[in-house]
Amino acid sequence: MAIALQAKGLTKEFKGFVAVNDVDLSIEKGTIHALIGPNGAGKTTCFNLLTKFLQPTRGTITYEGRDITRMKPAEIARLGMVRSFQISAIFPDLSVLQNVRVALQRMRGESYDFWRSDRLLSKFDDQAKGYIDEVGLTRFTNERAAALPYGRKRALEIATTLALSPDMLLLDEPMAGMGREDVELISQLIRRIAENRTVLMVEHNLSVVADLSDRITVLARGEILAEGTYAEISKTPAVIEAYIGA
Ligand code: ADP
């Protein structure tokens, strides 16, 4: 199986405190991989290192075989590895369609002009509608983003990420703050996205992790405690002690 993203000896120190310690991680292409662990385990730090929002103290990161250790987030986005942003990245007063058009236009490095956007951006409509369909927002196409229910806002945020044509998506707690119905909605969406992409997510909701992930890496105190399928890791005594039984 081909490897999409790989970290070797990944280490991050904050003023002598080792938040991530010598982590080796391989994410196989086409899989959904989850990063879990108790609070303070180093998940967020690890995620920020992999997406290049933080520079590692030591270690290397490769994406599709290319060394991305020194690259900036925008550079790795161009290589096809994209991090999803929070809902706050959406323009609340624009419609679903307008939000995705703006994302498509930004992807091409064009500056956008809200006053003329509708006419100028309509050339992106077919492509934008494709992404809107993919995330299940077709019937909300002309709704204002602000008027969408919470789970649908997250779906829109994912659609704007898809506009960057990623082969790999990195999702930071995609289910944060969601009720059961929205969790189900976004789970289905992640499954659909992963049909032809690689997904790495940090997620607290263990039933979601169990349900969606092909592979799971458990971090504790900055180190890898276990790795495998949910069935495998949930039987590991160290994991039960450090995480599940906590
Ligand atoms: P998690 O996401 O698993 O809860 P984090 O990656 O946020 O864990 O944090 C891991 C450890 O690193 C924690 O002890 C946290 O206090 C520490 N840490 C994270 N970011 C910083 C920072 N910028 N400066 C100092 N310590 C940090």
What does this structure look like?
The protein is α/β, with parallel strands linked by helices and about 250 residues long. It contains ten helices and ten strands. The chain has helices at about 45-50, 75-80, 95-105, 115-120, 125-135, 150-160, 180-195, 205-210, 230-235, 235-245; strands spanning about 5-15, 15-30, 30-35, 60-65, 65, 80-85, 170, 200, 215-220, 225-230. The strands form two sheets. The protein has a six-stranded mixed β-sheet with strand order 6-7-8-3-9-10, with helices on both faces. Helix 7 links the parallel strand 7 (about 170) and strand 8. Helix 3 crosses helix 5 (about 125-135) and helix 6 (about 150-160) packs parallel to helix 7. The two termini are about 35 Å apart. The structure holds adenosine-5'-diphosphate. One of its GO terms (molecular function) is ATP binding. Pfam families: ABC_tran (PF00005), BCA_ABC_TP_C (PF12399). Keywords: ATP-binding, Nucleotide-binding, Transport. This is ABC transporter ATP-binding protein.
Describe the strand arrangement of the main beta sheet, using strand numbers: 6-7-8-3-9-10
The sequence of SSEs as H and E is: EEEHEEHEHHHHEHEHEEHH
**Gap from first CA to last CA:** 34 Å
Q: Which CATH-level-2 architecture of the largest domain?
A: 3-Layer(aba) Sandwich
* Whole-angstrom Rg: 19 Å
Any idea what the CATH superfamily of the largest domain is called?
A: P-loop containing nucleotide triphosphate hydrolases
Bound molecules: adenosine-5'-diphosphate
What is the fold named in CATH at topology level of the largest domain?
A: Rossmann fold
Number of helices: 10
Number of domains: 2
The whole-number mean of residue pLDDT values reads 90
Low-confidence stretches: none
Shape descriptor: globular
Could you give the count of β-strands? 10
The largest pleated sheet is described as: 6 strands, mixed
Strand pairing plus helix content: what structural class? alpha/beta
Give the proportion of residues in helices: 25-40%
The CATH class of the largest domain = Alpha Beta
What share of residues are in beta strands? Answer: 25-35%
Domain ABC transporter: 5-246
Protein name: ABC transporter ATP-binding protein
GO molecular function: ATP binding
Keywords: ATP-binding, Nucleotide-binding, Transport
